[in-house]
Amino acid sequence: MDHNDLSARELAARIRRGELRASTVIRDTLDRIARVNPQINAIVQDCGADAMAEAEALDRRIADGQQVGVLAGVPVTTKVVSDQKGYATTNGTRLFQDVIAPQDNPFLRHMRQKDAIVVGRTNTPAFSYRWFTTNAMHGETKNPHNPALTAGGSSGGAAAAAATGLGHIAHGTDIAGSIRYPAYACGIHGLRPTSGRVPQFNHSGPDRGIGPQIMAVSGPLARRVDDLRLGLEAMAGYAPDDPWTAPVPLIGPTFRRRVALVKRPGGIDTDPRILDDLDRAAALFRAAGWEVEEPTELPDLREAVQLQIDLWLSDGHEAKLAQAEQEGDAGAIALLRHYADRAAAIDVARFGEIFARRSALIRAWRGFLEDYPVVLMPVSGELPFQQDEDLRGGDVLTRLWEVQLPQIAIPLLALPGLSVASGVVDGIPSGVQLVAPPWREDICLEAGELLERGFGFPALLPR
User: Fold this and answer.
1) pLDDT in tens, 375-403
2) Which of 7, 82, 178, 218 is catalytic?
């Protein structure tokens, strides 16, 4: 049998019951990686030897009657931007190729406590700045549906790995759409948790700047929404090495099943196929008895994008640009130079204004989500970009950042967001985004499963 035909939950259950051996599952996954990965370059660091040793040890524990975790024997991948003990945390760069992690990032520590097994580490663009996954250190990750398209970024390797069955659950990170967009581009699902839900800290390097601390998150990508749920359960929780984490329950109180349908958030142009996806999703909600409305007013998203850019790219801009130029990465250089004048205008007073406005926007959105616990909107205003489209000049880069507004704004607002695959037409994936109140990933996942049943499960590539 192909283990990818089972959900992560069912696979782990069969391993716990002794119906499958973890070592067999991991060996089969590593064999699939050897066959498939050379065509897409999703996994760029091999964890095979460690994975087999962990699987064999897990089999012995099960044979001895010991209790094992909810992800017992489930193959997973991690992104090279995050620490995994004994492996280089390259962040897609040659500059960091010798930065070896002394211990696991806390999200991975939690996953290992649940007996997940890492089979490989996935690619990211240099410094994780782009929606395109290619770099001089690890090379280019191909979109498994269409090599002319981006696999997304920055978790493009994670999305491509999950789409092709190179692990049931892929770890990604997201500060401006880096989980949701690659999932969208590769035709799978991706969950950006609430800021503080999943702990993260790299012991291999210094603390991050304030923007990444309050906006960047780790989360799961997978072909099944329930795999995202299980992945979140395994990653989440309080950790002393991440000062932003909080031990908030994963399941919240009952909520009104009311959806705000927003087809053109911030007034962006939205591709007709995406508009059709949104209408199909709205019809699925209505058929299931949910209320769906198109509100005439929506709290601001455009300002949230501007504040996100200032907190992420402007803080420490000179050092970021110097590193990008030292690495010689064209994509990172193009992005940072594009915002250089803006970054130069930021001063201490402006940072105070940014945080005051951020509080006001968060307050407005929390109030809106009291009335509409689910917002249904695009992931992007366009279908997946052509590979390296951001290198075609400043005007193109401006357009790309414009159509990505629905995903860039959400991190500033500290809200969870779920990218749900809607299908693949003529080799081009698409999907929709669901946004819920803070700490209510359970609402995103419930709504996402409803859409998954209507849209259909993403196909495994290749069969």
Assistant:
1) 999 999 999 999 999 999 999 999 999 99
2) 178
